[in-house]
Write a structure and sequence with these properties.
Layout lengths: L4 E4 L9 H12 L11 H5 L6 H8 L5 H22 L7 H9 L3 E6 L5 H9 L5 E6 H4 L3 H11 L5 E5 L2 H10 L3 E4 L11 E3 L5 H8 L1
């Protein structure tokens, strides 16, 4: 099968934004003395890839839903600003690899994130020129699998593959009816995949082997 496009998850697949998010969330929580919590990298890594409503419950289970979601919205807006200015950590050889990939495939991002977060990845790390389109859960209210299909339909893609690092990503690829490549260097563990990627820079070779 010849792929015409690559659709990427973001967190743990294209970047690690943990440090920036920890810093911004903990700064915001200083204004909420009633919340006795310090956000850690482990808190975030165990939640990356989940829908925002699920992350909110996991992070702030004792808050009323309305306050919980208002706090999530505040944190999300602030992390977008921070990451757009400072970027996140990319993986070894990522710039060179994206350049190679973009010469042979159309590249896309589908993430369960808030509006503006993918743009922060573009702005903060200078990666926007490689990607054709994007979609996120907050913008559409759809599942990740449905957003993958939306990207495919909107861009008339015939043979896409989804690349992500969590079981939720694998499930989304299955829902969308596309092959799945497991980014094993990321945050999650996955049962069942069509290809395993141990380093981002190995993706061009893996794609050749799969086609």
């Amino acid at each position: 099968m010849k792929f015409d496009s690559l659709i990427f998850d973001l967190d743990g697949t294209l970047w690690d934004s943990t440090d920036g998010i920890v810093a911004t969330w903990n700064e915001i929580l200083k204004d909420y003395p009633e919340i006795d919590k310090v956000v850690t990298g482990q808190d975030l890594s165990s939640n990356f890839g989940l829908p925002l409503t699920k992350i909110a419950v996991n992070m702030f289970p004792d808050l009323p839903e309305a306050k919980r979601m208002a706090l999530m919205d505040q944190c999300g807006r602030q992390e977008n600003i921070y990451l757009a200015a400072h970027g996140g950590r990319l993986f070894e050889g990522e710039y060179q690899t994206l350049d190679i990939l973009a010469a042979n495939y159309k590249l896309f991002i589908v993430s369960n994130c808030q509006v503006g977060y993918i743009d922060s990845f573009y702005t903060g790390n200078g990666t926007g020129s490689w990607f054709t389109d994007q979609e996120c859960a907050e913008a559409t209210g759809l599942s990740k699998g449905q957003n993958i299909r939306l990207i495919m339909e909107r861009n008339q893609l015939q043979s896409a593959v989804y690349i992500g690092d969590t079981q939720g990503d694998a499930d989304a690829a299955r829902e969308a009816g596309v092959p799945f490549i497991y980014a094993a260097y990321g945050f999650g563990q996955v049962d069942g995949y069509d290809g395993r990627l141990d380093q981002f820079k190995d993706l061009p070779r893996l794609l050749q082997e799969m086609q």
